[in-house]
Specification:
alpha+beta; six-stranded mixed β-sheet; disordered N terminus; 312 residues
Amino acid sequence: MANTFIKATKVVSTALGVLERETVLPNLVWRDAAGGFEGVYNDTISIRVPAYVTARTRALRNTDEISIDELTETKVDVTLDTDVYKGIKVTDENLTLDITDFSAQVLGPILRSIVAGIEDDLIDTISAATYALTETFSEADPLGSVLAARKALNKCYAPMNDRVFACGADIEELILKDLANRESGAPSAENALQDATVGKYGGFRIVSVPGLAPDEAYAFHKSAFVLSSRAPAVPGGVAWGESGSAGGFAIRVIKDYDASHLTDRVIGNCYIGSDVVYDDGALNNDEQFFPEDGSGSGSPILVRAVKLTKGS
């Protein structure tokens, strides 16, 4: 029988395909929003958030001096601080007698664990953020709760496009029950269930994220959270390895042999960092966001996302 050689580039290509298909929440946020991390201090890059100001008015034929304001840009720092990895030991017996499809039986589990690790890190960032906008998700009125989140984002001038409503299992169930109870004449787009996306509901794309707390949901614009990833370099001492990126993810796969234990070691990993985008400003009595005007009256607050917690 002819030898079959596993090429590193083909393996990594397959791995990246798995990453792109399996992930949910990381595909909903601001991905790799700035340049490279090579040579930067503390493995940290700063993403510029453009200045956001309000215009002034004056009466025509008014000779009074006009007011001159200043632009104040903000930034969000993203640090590559986490190495998400998984290593698998593959014995000679495994290779000879057990493994018939290397990508499916070895690489698949490795990559699925890395995907879960990336998403878990992002979930930790989102759940630990301090929210200026919070709502109770009512069991009795799911649609009203989603619309309340929409109103809160509207008042803070979050862009209409690229909004999403990410929910845990309990809240997803309430939304699905409400959809199921609608009349048969309801728009088909609001009843479509495909993969993790429930469909349109209350002006949002509803996405189920099992890793979220079951009783929590987050309505946000994609710019509320940022996630960056980088593939480590392939060391010269391994038998083979390859680094690459696809769909915004970066990954490295390496394989070497431990002769003392007669085993291969297959390891996949990537470096990631995530953070929250805060805007300088304040909420008025009507819960509308007003940006920092240079007077120092504002402070960094999160107004691009709404946190909802299930209530009665």
